[in-house]
Design goal:
The chain is about 35% helix and about 15% strand. It has about 350 residues and is of the alpha/beta class. It folds into 2 domains: about 140 residues, Glycogen Phosphorylase B (Rossmann fold, 3-Layer(aba) Sandwich); about 180 residues, Glycogen Phosphorylase B (Rossmann fold). The strands form 2 sheets. It has a 6-stranded parallel sheet with strand order 3-2-1-4-5-6. It has a 6-stranded parallel sheet with strand order 9-8-7-10-11-12, sandwiched between helices. β7, α8 and β8 form a beta-alpha-beta unit. α8 runs parallel beside α13. The longest helix is centred in the last third of the chain and has 16 residues. The protein is globular and about 60 Å long.
């Protein structure tokens, strides 16, 4: 395969979307095994892309989420000139399509939108009713225009690094002799996607009392939240690791957990992609749009008349979509899974 046959994918900017995009990479690789796939993506995502066997190389986009940076995009595009036969642009913004255009890639696939005529020359219609899930939108850009029926999205499957896994367990002094429940109480998008911290604390305390170790995972920004939940749980075996791990270390730790309880967040999609049973809690978003892409999941969603609103904060100021999901029902979902583990030989 010559370099000119390579494919460049402009990736998304959110953790969960980047994990779901692996469904596209797996589909493309299954259809054309010899074609190398490179992904243009934010710096934080490059280690995550290394856990996707379908991706040959991650290329850093040295700009923030909302930065236009035309000069930087032009320089990067020109540095990639002559290397790719095709580009697929997953985001729908104007700026996201600039690098493939500056690179002179012959076929540039993307959805219609935001003044991209000419910048995108393989324009696909965007029908939100047909493309009713994020992953289906990604898949739709990977098939040929004449394919009326979209293929079933392949499940994301992140590679686990066993050596790195052992190293992070040793560094953090984690106990693997008991069942492990991972709790992910954060949501980068906003509080309308976050189950109340006191509910997470109550759940953590109950699980510890029944003999499980509880790991609270999250980013550095979520470290205060993790500490708050651990203090409120006030139980041996509950430890906050929020801010203590890199994103790929969280991948390896989630692969060790027996069950993961998460808001609709990037870590939820990571837990699903490493095969851990995922108990997913939805508030302002909906599992109809961004479900955990696995059959090994339990979903809690109230489906209220005001749901989904997709707002960062509850516009009605009551958060009933989350408050109404009780600790008892989530605890029952987790305990059912832990009981299954205890029955294994």
């Amino acid at each position: 395969m010559t370099a000119i046959g390579k494919l460049l994918v402009v990736g998304p900017s959110w953790v969960g979307d980047m994990v779901m995009a692996q469904s596209l990479y797996r589909l493309l690789k299954a259809r054309e095994p010899a074609r190398a796939i490179d992904v243009l993506a934010p710096a934080w995502s490059l280690p995550l892309l290394e856990r996707m066997p379908e991706v040959a190389r991650g290329i850093e986009l040295p700009l923030g989420h909302r930065e236009l940076g035309i000069g930087a995009r032009r320089r990067l595009g020109r540095s990639l000139s002559g290397q790719y036969a095709r580009a697929i642009v997953l985001p729908r913004s104007f700026k996201s399509a600039l690098v493939p255009w500056f690179a002179g890639i012959a076929r540039r696939t993307g959805f219609r939108g935001e003044w991209r005529y000419g910048i995108i020359n393989d324009i696909r219609p965007f029908d939100p009713r047909r493309l009713d899930q994020t992953v289906r939108r990604f898949i739709a850009l990977g098939v040929e225009p004449g394919e009326d029926v979209l293929p079933e999205p392949p499940q994301p499957r992140l590679r686990v690094d066993r050596d790195a896994q052992g190293a992070v367990v040793a560094r953090l002094g984690l106990d693997l002799t008991k069942p492990v429940a991972a709790l992910m109480p954060g949501a980068e998008y906003g509080p309308a996607k976050q189950w109340p911290p006191k509910y997470f604390a109550s759940l953590a305390g109950r699980l510890a009392a029944s003999g499980a170790n509880v790991w609270i995972l999250g980013s550095g920004k979520e470290a205060p939240l993790g500490r708050e939940i651990a203090r409120a749980a006030n139980a041996a075996g509950v430890v906050s690791l929020a801010g203590e791990t890199a994103l790929v270390e969280a991948v390896d730790l989630l692969a060790l957990a027996d069950v993961a309880v998460s808001n609709d967040s990037g870590l939820m999609h990571i837990a699903a992609a490493v095969g851990t049973h995922t108990v997913a809690i939805y508030g302002s978003s909906t599992p109809d749009f961004t479900p955990p892409l696995t059959a090994n999941a339990t979903v809690h969603y109230r489906r209220l008349s005001c749901s989904p609103c997709f707002e960062r904060e509850c516009p009605l100021k009551h958060l009933d979509c989350l408050i109404g999901i009780g600790v008892d029902e989530v605890h029952a979902s987790v305990e059912r899974k832990l009981a299954t583990r205890a029955q294994r030989p």
